[in-house]
Every structure is written in C-alpha cells, then in structure tokens.
Amino acid sequence: MAGRFAPSPTSDLHVGNLRTALAALLMARSTGLDFLIRVEDLDVDRVRAADGTAERQLADLAALGIGSDAPVVRQSERLDRYAGALERLPVYECYCTRREIAEAASAPHADGYRPYPGTCRHLGAAERAARRAERPPALRVDAGAATVTVRDRWAGEVTGEIDDFVVRRNDGAYAYNLAVVVDDLAQGVTQVVRGEDLLSSSPRQAWLARRLGAAEPEYAHVGLVVNDCGQRLAKRDGAVTLADLAAQGWDAGRVLSELGASLGLNEPGEPVTAEDLASRFDPERRPGLWIWEEPAG
Ligand code: GLU
C-alpha cells in the first residue's frame, strides 16, 4: 500500500507542485504507507519539447528529501498495460472535433471541462467508415451515464456524473485518466494526495477503477498555491522553481522550510528535514490555499 506523487515532465516543478509533493510524502509517512514517484510522460510532444525535465524534477524532489521508496516508473514504458486495460473496457470511436463538442455539449463545468454529449455513440457502420476516413478517431468509454460518489479525506463526498471520457486520444496517446488509474492499481497506490484542480476528475477515475474490478484509492486534495492576484501559480510569477530560488539565494533547505511553514509545521526559516516534517504532520488537517510571495531582494 502506498501514496504517490506523479508529475508530468512538461516544465520544471514550481513551489506549488513541490508543496503538493511534500504533502503527499508526509501524508504517506504519517499514515504508515510507502511513497512512490511516477513520471507521467505520455504526452510525447509536450515531453519532447521539455527535454531533460523529468530528470530535473526528480533531482529537485531529491534535493528536498522527497524520494521514491521503489524505482521510479515512467508511463512511456508501460504502454502494454494501458492497451491491456482498454481491452477490458466498453469503448467506441469518436470522430468529433473540439469545436463539434463545444457546439453540441451543455455548458462547461466550473473547471472548464465539457462533458461529452455522446454524439458518436450511436453512429451506424457506414457513417463510422465515412468519418474515419476524415480523421483518426479517439476512443471513449461508454460509461452509461453513471453517477459516482467518492470520499475525499478532507473535502468529504464528491459526486460526479460520468460522461464518455477519452481513454485514447486521436493521436494514439493513452489518456491521462486511463493511465493514472491503471498505474495506481498496478502499483498498489491506496492514497492519492494531489492538487485541488484534480478533485473533479476523481469520480471519473473511481468509476474506471471500479470498472477494472478494483476499489479506488483514498483521495485527499490539497489547496493550490496562488500568486498575489489569487491566480494559480505559474512560471510567469517570477522565482518559482528551485533553480530560480537558488539564484535568489534560497537553497533547497530554505525552500523546504517555506513549504513546511505553508503547511503549518514550522516557522519560516527554521531549519527542518522532510523527516522532521513527517513527525509533525497531522493527516486530519487539510493543507489549504497558499499565497506565494517570492523572497524579497
Ligand atoms: N500527472 C498529473 C499532473 O501532473 C497528476 C496526476 C495525479 O496526481 O493524478 O497534473
């Protein structure tokens, strides 16, 4: 049984990502679980464009004392597992463009997600053949309009209607929702601590886990880190990565201390190790929103 942190290597980790990674480690440690790191590198174009990022992410995590108890796995090396899972799911081809979905779908959810209206589910063979000649299809699961409720450790019950979401994109890449569930099940992950932006994906992922014959992990979504305008932290917000902060005179120990302080575990600037923080972490207390201020001067 394990917790995990599963970054996508498309850009260097910023303090928001690092804080989530730390919370995931501390939660696993304080609940007696192993901790795993998994590289989610299925989006080949974006990963290739960000060459060397996975290695820098792992080095930055290690510098903070955040390491995996088992060898790090990479999703790009596990494609056969996703293919195997697909064979066990009811799927259909979808030829819709983004625009067609936007025109046919109901209004997007608060997080911008547009539930798929099921357009391609009932196409006849001739129509399929014609559309397939126009563009390569994505694969969607037929979720049968299920409704799923999951429990988040801190947010409580979260209910979602499951649309026919994409499990293989039309460029052939396995979709995040499929890979994340297959890997969490295969790796014995029973605790998922991650950013609040993924809370609304949890019912979809739980549906998939159950459909694959397993129980979903326990979810615990932590508050995001925002800039001083209240927007989700991004690279443009200045010194936000470990390398940026080192250039401003903050070593990894100092950054760890800031992260620990943001979780209410130590005073800012107090020297701490990840192990110290694990002994102070209270799994009942949700890490809330954090407003990031970069070091002065
Ligand atoms: N790889 C995903 C991301 O970096 C996170 C996956 C997860 O924690 O479920 O956004």
TrEMBL record:
One of its GO terms (biological process) is tRNA modification. A motif ('HIGH' region) lies at residues 7-17. Residues 4-254 form the Glutamyl/glutaminyl-tRNA synthetase class Ib catalytic domain. Belongs to the class-I aminoacyl-tRNA synthetase family. GluQ subfamily. A motif ('KMSKS' region) lies at residues 232-236. ATP binds at K235. Catalyzes the tRNA-independent activation of glutamate in presence of ATP and the subsequent transfer of glutamate onto a tRNA(Asp). Glutamate is transferred on the 2-amino-5-(4,5-dihydroxy-2-cyclopenten-1-yl) moiety of the queuosine in the wobble position of the QUC anticodon. L-glutamate binds at R4, F5, A6, P7, S8, E40, Y176, R194. HAMAP family: Glu_Q_tRNA_synth. Binds 1 zinc ion per subunit. It comes from the Bacteria. Transmembrane segments: none annotated. This is Glutamyl-Q tRNA(Asp) synthetase. The gene is gluQ. The keyword Electron transport does not apply.
